[in-house]
Design a protein that fits this description.
four-stranded antiparallel beta sheet; 4 helices; 30% helix
């Protein structure tokens, strides 16, 4: 469970933005720097590598990069495209790292408990080889 003080919650809330995407919109391109952590509020997205859909993401899924564990900026190994109208809550990498640096107790809990549904910096070769792909597909199937 992620426990945060009121001050920490306010700091996080100040840095989150809401974005909207229409069907067909590309949110990430292969090779693009992963500078945000995205939480899907509504809608469905597909993750595409080498012209093949490797994951379908939906409400409640989180995607981006686990940059709080690795200081380098990752590059997306996939395209992310909206399948339906989507609402996303997004926080920029630098802003999240500032909050985590200031609120250490929350940072420890965050690092232990937040699960990325899909890590864009990981390349999937086959569903059997890539636990990230399997998790995203499994997560989506269980919600339907």
């Amino acid at each position: 469970m992620l426990l945060a003080s009121d001050g920490c919650l306010r700091a996080l809330a100040m840095h989150f933005t809401m974005s909207h995407s229409a069907p067909g919109d590309l949110l990430y391109h292969t090779g693009e720097s992963i500078d945000s952590l995205c939480f899907i509020v509504t809608g469905s997205l597909e993750v595409i590598q080498d012209d093949e859909v490797v994951a379908i993401l939906g409400k409640g899924d989180v995607f981006g990069d686990s940059f709080w564990t690795n200081p380098s900026v990752g590059q997306s190994a996939a395209n992310v495209r909206a399948l339906t109208y989507c609402d996303l809550h997004t926080i920029k990498r630098d802003r999240l790292l500032e909050v985590l640096d200031f609120y250490q107790a929350f940072a420890n809990s965050f690092a232990r408990n937040l699960v990325l549904t899909y890590n864009l910096s990981h390349r999937c070769y086959t569903e059997q080889q890539c636990s990230v792909c399997s998790l995203a597909l499994f997560s989506r199937q269980n919600r339907e």
